Structure formats: structure tokens, C-alpha cells
């Protein structure tokens, strides 16, 4: 296994969660962290990001432990990367490269592979340097998977051509997605979002077990287990919905990476409701901060949000969770508890019904299809049969209100 030195940089005080997170990512990338170095800085050093004394310290430790790679939990500019590599004679992997590397390793659909390759090419293009290419050929390992190895031989123009061709392919894939989305327009769409490893895929699978027929999604105790959005239909008796699983967030994503991330989250824009999943056993503050930013970036703050404080079964200090999101709709639960899954479903149904509008509808006997639809999707309060058709009293969704307005009796 490749051994690396990990470097955490803090701007206020040290945070053990951050060190743990970096170590987990290094493990996920298939390497092992053999030394942990950290520095609190109040100003970024333009040449090395960290202080030059720290750079020497890392160099010494690397020599002693015979390690060839250093991984940072921050994004480095092209010149910082070059300076650090030249000074230490070590391969330097920054935060963005590490995450992209994990994505490249784990992507398994055509779309996610293309998106990640695109992000890697764009990120690496300005950062190619002799040292980088030389080292990546020698050592392999983190930060060198994907297009890295061939960078030096490939002329920059060819890379730009590659970028264009990938963008073209992605555009075509987008067209099929629009068609898929259209087929779900009538149904209420719910999106799961949250920090990586919070339990999104597990919740979707538990819901499928009780209320769905379609196949499970992949879930594992890994950071970035999910890299593609997948949508499943659920039948909550008279309320039918789709639930969409999405790629997890992580703190400190660069602007560029964030943008490519956000395109994979486009689906959220089409949601009628968001379930924000939080791992209550982990740094809640960082999760909420990261999620708030993403919600802002995708511009979906106006949507109905239910905060799901998950993994309650492994939380010691339960009081600490209760202080978050005082005014928001929320639920405390464990995806491992079947009763909690039922409670979550009920909470979702309650929130959906809050938006319903009380109406009286008159549907003629010859519009059997519409009558069927209404009867199988709503709890009807009252039915009256008259000469022309059936008069129904019920509460319906805004979507259906607009769609079936001609059947709604207005006073
Ligand atoms: N103890 C406990 N573990 C949970 C709970 N929910 C999920 N997990 C575990 O947490 C790990 C991550 O769960 P996932 O559902 O894959 O997480 P995710 O949010 O989809 O993560 P990404 O796909 O990486 O973004 C898995 O090992 C789950 O079994 C819970 O309520 N309690
Ligand atoms: Mg997942």
C-alpha cells in the first residue's frame, strides 16, 4: 500500500474531525497515512501555502520514513504545487486532486466517468509541470490515476480537444435525462442531499424495502459511495413520490470542482421537496455549513426542506443535536430502525399534504381515467353521484390543481 504524509491546514484552531476526514479520504483512495502534520495559519504563504519552516519539517519526516507523497487538505495553486514539489522533491497531492482521484476510481457509469475525466483534465491542465509528470510516472498511486500519466506526451491542444469532445458527449447524455424527467413530471419528486456518508443511500434503500419495488442503490461505509444520481418510485399508499439519491458533499471544494459537482446535482432543481440528511454522530456544524452553501449555489432555498438527523443510534450526546435548526422541519432517527423509516414516511406525507388545496371536483362518468387517477392518488372525503358525473370533496396537490382545473368547481 502506498504510504503518504498528510497535512492539515487550519485557519483558526485544530479540528480533529478534519484530520480524520483527510485520513479517511486517503484510505478510500487506497493509500495509508503514516504521519500527520498540521499547521494553524492566519495568512496563506503565496509560495508554499504553509510556512517554509513547515515545508522543511515535512521534507525531514519524509526522508526518515522514506515516503514519496504528501497529501494536503487544501487546494494549491499551480505555482504552490510546483514550488512544493521542487523544494521537497516529493509528489504533492492537493485536496481537489485527491477527491477527483477517488471519483475517477469509483465512477462506474458512462456519465460519471466522463464528468470526472472532464474535471480532471480541466484541473490538471494549468498544473502540469515536469516534476509532476516525472514523479507520477515513477511512483503511480494517488493523484496519478486518470489522465495524469499521459499529460506530458499530450500536447495541450489535444487536451483542449478532449475537453471539447467530452463536453459534447455530455450534452447528448443530458438530452436523454430531459426525457426521463418529463416522464416524472406528474409525480411529486423528493431529493436526498447531504454530506458524504450521512446515510442517504441507506435511507433510500430502507424506503424501497417498505414502499418500493425497484432495485436498491449502492451504499457502503465509504466516502463518496454514490457518484451518480438515481431515482426510485415509492408508493406511500395514496401518495406516490419519487426519491432521488445524489452524490454527497464535502467541505472545502474548490470553485471549479464545486461547479462540476453542482452539475451532477442538477436533478435537485426539479425536486418538489428536499430531504437534507445529516450524520448526527459527526461534525454537524461543518455538514450544515457545507449543505447551506450548496443549497444556495444550486439556488433551491425556496423549496420545502426536511432536515433528517440520522444515525441517532450511535450518538452519545443527544442534547447537542437538538440545538440545530430550531425553526426548521426536522426529524431525529436512525436508518437502521424500521419504525423510524415509517415515521419518516409519515412526516413526508404530512408535509406534502400541508400544501394541498381543498377542492370540490366534478368528473364526468366518461372520464374514467381521470377518475381512476384521482381515486388512487388521494383520500377522498366525500363522493356524490349525480346525472353527469361524480362530485368529489378532497384535498389535492398544486400540480394536480393546475392540471385538472377544468374539473374543479369554483364558487
Ligand atoms: N449506525 C448507523 N449507521 C448508518 C445509519 N445510516 C447509514 N449508516 C451507515 O453509514 C454508512 C454510509 O451510508 P450511505 O447510505 O452509503 O451514505 P451516503 O449518504 O449515501 O454516502 P455517499 O454516497 O458517500 O454520499 C453505511 O455504512 C451505512 O450502513 C444509521 O442510522 N445508523
Ligand atoms: Mg450514497
Give a verbal description of the structure:
The structure is a single chain. By secondary structure, the protein is α/β, with parallel strands linked by helices. The chain has three domains: about 1-155, Rossmann fold (3-Layer(aba) Sandwich); about 185-355, Rossmann fold (3-Layer(aba) Sandwich), CATH 3.40.50; about 355-405, no CATH class. About 45% of the residues lie in helices and about 20% in strands. It is built from 14 helices and 13 strands. The strands form three sheets. It has a six-stranded mixed β-sheet with strand order 6-7-5-8-9-10, sandwiched between helices. Strand 3, helix 3 and strand 4 (about 90-95) form a beta-alpha-beta unit. Helix 5 packs antiparallel against helix 7 and helix 5 (about 110-125) packs antiparallel against helix 9. The longest helix is centred in the middle third of the chain and has 27 residues, at about 155-180. The model is unreliable at about 130-140 (pLDDT under 50). The structure holds guanosine-5'-triphosphate and magnesium ion. The site of magnesium ion (MG) has 6 residues, from helix 8.
Short synopsis of the structure:
One of its GO terms (cellular component) is cytoplasm. By secondary structure, the chain is of the alpha/beta class. The protein is built from 14 helices and 13 strands.
Could you tell me the number of beta strands?
13
Question: Which CATH architecture of the largest domain would you pick?
Answer: 3-Layer(aba) Sandwich
How would you sum up the global shape? elongated
Strand content: 15-25%
Report low-confidence residues grouped into runs of 5 or more. 132-138
**Helix/strand order, N-terminal first:** EHEHEHEHHHHEHEEHEHEHEHEHEEH
Return the domain count: 3
The DSSP helix count reads 14
Spell out the CATH superfamily of the largest domain. Answer: P-loop containing nucleotide triphosphate hydrolases
Lateral strand order in the biggest sheet: 6-7-5-8-9-10
Query: What is CATH's topology name of the largest domain?
Result: Rossmann fold
Average per-residue pLDDT, rounded, comes to 88
Main sheet? 6 strands, mixed
Instruction: State the helicity in percent bands.
Output: 40-55%
- Secondary-structure-based class equals alpha/beta
The radius of gyration computed from the alpha-carbon positions, rounded to a whole number of angstroms, is 26 Å
Supply the CATH class of the largest domain.
Alpha Beta
Amino acid at each position: 500500500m502506498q504510504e503518504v504524509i498528510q497535512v492539515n491546514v487550519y485557519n483558526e484552531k485544530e479540528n480533529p474531525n478534519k484530520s480524520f476526514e483527510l485520513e479517511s479520504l486517503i484510505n478510500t483512495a487506497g493509500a495509508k497515512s503514516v504521519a500527520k502534520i498540521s499547521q494553524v495559519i492566519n495568512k496563506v504563504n503565496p509560495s508554499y501555502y504553509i510556512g517554509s519552516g513547515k515545508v522543511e519539517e515535512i521534507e525531514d519526516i519524509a526522508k526518515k520514513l522514506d515516503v514519496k507523497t504528501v497529501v494536503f487538505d487544501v487546494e494549491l495553486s499551480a505555482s504552490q504545487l510546483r514550488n512544493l514539489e521542487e523544494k521537497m522533491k516529493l509528489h504533492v497531492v492537493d485536496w481537489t486532486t485527491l477527491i477527483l482521484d477517488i471519483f475517477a476510481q469509483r465512477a462506474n457509469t458512462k456519465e460519471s466517468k466522463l464528468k470526472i475525466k472532464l474535471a480532471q483534465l480541466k484541473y490538471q491542465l494549468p498544473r502540469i509541470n515536469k516534476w509532476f509528470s516525472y514523479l507520477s510516472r515513477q511512483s503511480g498511486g494517488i493523484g496519478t490515476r486518470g489522465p495524469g500519466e499521459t499529460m506530458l506526451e499530450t500536447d495541450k491542444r489535444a487536451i483542449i480537444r478532449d475537453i471539447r469532445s467530452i463536453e459534447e458527449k455530455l450534452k447528448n447524455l443530458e438530452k436523454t435525462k430531459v426525457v426521463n424527467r418529463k416522464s416524472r413530471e406528474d409525480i411529486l419528486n423528493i431529493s436526498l442531499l447531504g454530506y458524504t456518508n450521512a446515510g442517504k443511500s441507506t435511507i433510500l434503500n430502507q424506503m424501497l424495502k417498505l414502499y418500493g419495488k425497484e432495485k436498491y442503490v449502492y451504499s457502503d461505509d465509504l466516502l463518496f459511495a454514490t457518484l451518480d444520481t438515481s431515482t426510485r418510485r415509492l408508493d406511500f399508499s395514496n401518495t406516490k413520490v419519487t426519491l432521488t439519491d445524489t452524490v454527497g458533499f464535502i467541505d472545502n471544494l474548490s470553485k471549479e470542482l464545486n461547479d462540476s459537482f453542482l452539475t451532477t446535482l442538477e436533478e435537485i432543481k426539479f425536486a418538489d421537496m428536499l430531504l437534507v440528511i445529516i450524520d448526527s454522530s459527526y461534525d454537524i456544524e461543518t455538514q450544515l455549513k457545507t449543505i447551506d452553501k450548496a443549497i444556495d449555489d444550486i439556488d433551491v432555498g425556496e423549496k420545502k426542506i426536511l432536515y433528517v438527523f440520522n444515525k441517532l443510534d450511535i450518538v452519545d450526546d443527544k442534547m447537542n443535536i437538538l440545538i440545530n435548526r430550531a425553526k426548521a422541519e426536522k426529524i431525529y432517527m436512525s436508518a437502521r430502525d424500521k419504525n423510524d423509516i415509517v415515521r419518516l414516511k409519515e412526516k413526508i406525507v404530512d408535509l406534502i399534504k400541508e400544501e394541498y388545496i381543498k377542492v370540490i371536483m366534478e368528473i364526468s362518468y366518461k372520464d374514467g381515467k381521470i377518475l381512476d387517477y384521482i381515486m388512487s392518488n388521494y383520500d377522498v372525503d366525500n363522493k356524490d353521484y349525480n346525472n353527469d358525473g361524480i362530485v368529489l370533496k378532497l384535498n389535492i396537490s398544486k400540480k394536480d390543481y393546475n392540471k385538472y382545473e377544468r374539473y374543479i368547481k369554483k364558487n
